[in-house]
Amino acid sequence: MGAHSSISVDPIYRKAGWAAIASGIIGVTAFGLLTAAVTTRTSWVPSDRIYMLFDAHDIGVAFQFLLLIPAVFGLRALCHQTPPGLGNAAFATGKWAVIFVVLLIVLGVGGKIVSNGHYMLPQGIFGIWLIVVNWRLSRSLPVWLRWFGMVVGLGLALVGACFVGVCFVYPSMLYVPQPPMESIKEVNSVANTFIHQLLPYASYMGVATLPIWTILTGFQLLKKRPVAIA
To answer: Is the pLDDT reported for residue 228 higher than 50?
Structure first.
């Protein structure tokens, strides 16, 4: 006679699920602060109020991505349910991309060592990672959620690409420590116009939707049922 017993949900899924939901809630708030800053900015050199909104947004993104670290571990565990899973190199890419987002924001907001846009580059790398992970999450997440995640990842990747483009237009973005805005002359060029027209679409596609995807994925992680053992 085979006796069956059950074990509780793997703690990694429970921790990852709640962290993803919290990350999403903070992300929604952070995007609201960014929208307020961008839509009320009236000059090349931001006012103190606009600077405060940008800084508050950046701090929010730092906490958003800090809470994504447990979620990355949870997604890795999900990937292992469907071989070939997620390799160590791919996992490390996602983990370190998230960590560098947080680190560069701290350096930009706290110490003003780097430009507050530097974090967009690892954010873009995380977007590419998100595409790969969602592609591999067959039978672990609903198909619609996986495709949504790939769209989010593409949007984040485009945001990262926009930052690279901005650095070509404004090389001073790469200076350490970052120069004050007052010392940077605004550039009016076709390339600059194109980048700044693409960036809002990429942001709505990736930055605005990432919190929604993480909340939905968090609930999926919390749905993991006990596993029966014979």
So the answer is: no
What is the distance between the alpha carbons of residues 40 and 54, in angstroms, rounded to a whole number? 11
Return the exposure string of 132-148: e unless at least 16 CB atoms fall within 10 Å of the residue's CB, then b: bbbebbeebbeeebbeb
Query: In the prediction, which pLDDT does 225 show?
Result: 57
Cis peptide before 46 (omega within 30 of 0): no
* Banded pLDDT at 61 (limits 50, 70, 90): very high
Could you tell me how far CA 70 lies from the centroid of its own chain? 13
Do the Cβ atoms of 108 and 114 come closer than 8 Å? yes
Phi-psi region of 179 (alpha: psi -120 to 50; beta: other; left: phi over 0): beta
Q: Check: CB of residue 28 under 8 Å from CB of residue 76.
A: no
**pTM for the predicted model, two decimal places:** 0.88
Report the C-alpha gap between 124 and 161 in whole angstroms. 7
Identity at 101, one-letter amino acid code: V
